[in-house]
Amino acid sequence: MSFYPVSRGFGTRGGSWRGKDRLDSRGQAKSPVPPAAPLGQIIDRINIKALLVEQDAPTIQDIKYVASYNWLEGKSPTILVPGSPPAWTPPFGATKLKPDSEDVFRDINAARYPSYPLEPTFRALKVMEPEFDLHTIDIVGCGSTIGNLMRFSGSLSKPFRFDVDVVGDTVLFVRRESSPTEIIQDLQGYGHTFPEAYTTWDSAVRNSCSHQRAVQYEFGDLKFLVRSETDGYVRFDKPSAAQEAPSNLEDALETISLVPSTADAGKELQVRLRGTKVPQSQIFDVKTRRSNKLFDMEDILPRLWANQTSKFLIAYHKFGVFENPEVEDVRGEVLAWEENNSNLLARYHAVVKRIVDVVRGSEDKQCEVSWDGEGPLLITKQVGTGRRALPSAVVESFDS
């Protein structure tokens, strides 16, 4: 049984699928990807076959959508809070599309704000949930880091590496690519041109290039905060109360001291209040396939489970012509996947628990987690100066 979508990296679409960011901030061609940095001293090894696993696998409970933001196109790093995903607006009749051709960032958060890729999540969280208690959360991660650990738990060979930082008792997983502006090579198909043709940004968030959102939930004895990218949402006929942006957003932004953090090249992260809160029940993910290549739902269900997305669209085409694609409710399939993969999820829970315990007890509380795709998973010290996941001003805003 296959567990994870390899082409999408499990985490997000991979970057600015509506953007055209081929150049760096100075308008120069991006530099080649540097070689991998050396690993530090080994703190712990995790052998998945020898790992002690609880007999009863936990299930996800107490799910809550807590934060969201859009990345705005432009040279300055700017997010719109709460933002909103592009709405499902299919054209009338069958439409022939051009195949993907634009460069796409592997990690848009790092590409837009390399100093602290997790910071936009916490900026949005502080605005939308001013009383949020960060110290009640055990793990903060993105779809990519969570997906990497699930692959390891299922012994699906795909190397990975990410940073770990501890803030209080909260363990933050920070995605790490070879370069912040690394792009996905050799894109094929219509995974990016299809959303451009079949979804539309709402007027309040026009010129956005990505919608990111964070959900909070409990998984066994661990509390997670997971950020991921969302492909779109299905509109209701009439906006519900849950869709309206909280009236206290302006007050929240004024009363909390969000000191701008300096990004590379002296650019600061800007926060603008725009968009509408879209309930988790309305968002969906997209995959495209040739009509003669049946899509296996086992390739997407782990992602939908991890970020708690209940709607999905598989769009089949013949030479770029899509006929009547529809968004479907897959909540039942996600729950069935959770039940049928209890052994995998028990191992995944044990792996995450082990990492949390080890890094909380480490001397520097700043580590790396890596896997070469074959041997044990390694927890190592960071080489050189430790890399903080968040600037001190953001951490202090939650402590206050």
The beta-strand count equals 19
Major β-sheet profile: 11 strands, mixed
3D shape = globular
How much β-strand is present in the residues? 25-35%
Structural class, from helix and strand content?
A: alpha+beta
The end-to-end distance, rounded to whole angstroms, is 47 Å
Percent helix, as a range, is 10-25%
What is the ordering of alpha helices and beta strands? Answer: EEEEEHHEHEEHEEEEHEEHEEEHHEEH
**Tally of alpha and pi helices:** 9
Description:
There is one protein chain. 20% of the residues lie in helices and 27% in strands. With 400 residues, the protein is an alpha+beta fold. It has one domain. The chain has an eleven-stranded mixed beta sheet with strand order 1-19-18-7-8-6-11-10-2-3-13, sandwiched between helices. Strands 5, 12, 14, 15, 16 and 17 form a six-stranded mixed beta sheet that branches. Strands 4-9 form a two-stranded antiparallel ribbon. Helix 3 crosses helix 8. The longest helix has 19 residues. The N terminus is likely disordered.
